Amino acid sequence: MTQRDPHEDQDGKVLTRSKPKQRIKRPRMYRVLLHNDDFTPREFVVLVLKHVFAKGEAESTALMLHVHNNDVGVVGLYPFSVAETKIAEVTALSEESNFPLLFTMEPTDPDDGADGSGDPNDPEAPR
């Protein structure tokens, strides 16, 4: 009697087993926050938002005004390394121009559904 390959079925076809699918966990997102100050010109803030954060003219202006009126605003949601890099770039530009423009970041709560969708400046959004 011939010995059967344990990887073949009765018809001689090779059976394949797939590993159970591993769930890839999304990276934790971080809010990049712009803080208001009384010294940095509005035009510089708009320029930074356009250049570093790839915002359009209208969106940059609206965000700058939001921060001016509310003291802080969310510029965007990014993975840690992207947020850190953007903040470093903005800080270098601000220091080079002798402005105290401040950006910070904070982790999103994994349970708040902050996946990059929606309006980050929505006052009803969880913080």
Radius of gyration using CA atoms only: 24 Å
Give helix and strand order, one letter per element, not per position. Answer: EHHEHE
- How is the CATH topology of one domain named? Ribosomal Protein L30, Chain: A
Biggest sheet record? 3 strands, antiparallel
Spatial separation of the terminal alpha carbons: 71 Å
The CATH class of one domain: Alpha Beta
- The largest sheet has its strands arranged as 2-1-3
Structural class: alpha+beta
CATH architectural name of one domain: 2-Layer Sandwich
Number of strands: 3
Helix count, per DSSP?
Answer: 3
What number is the mean pLDDT? 84
> What is the 3D shape?
rod-shaped
CATH H level, superfamily name of one domain? Ribosomal protein L7/L12, C-terminal domain/Adaptor protein ClpS
Fraction of helical residues: 25-40%
The residue ranges in which pLDDT falls below 50 over 5 or more consecutive positions are 116-127
Our estimate of the beta-strand percent is 15-25%
Architecture blueprint of SSEs:
Elements: E1 29-35, H1 42-53, H2 57-70, E2 72-79, H3 80-96, E3 102-107
Antiparallel strand pairs: 1-2, 1-3
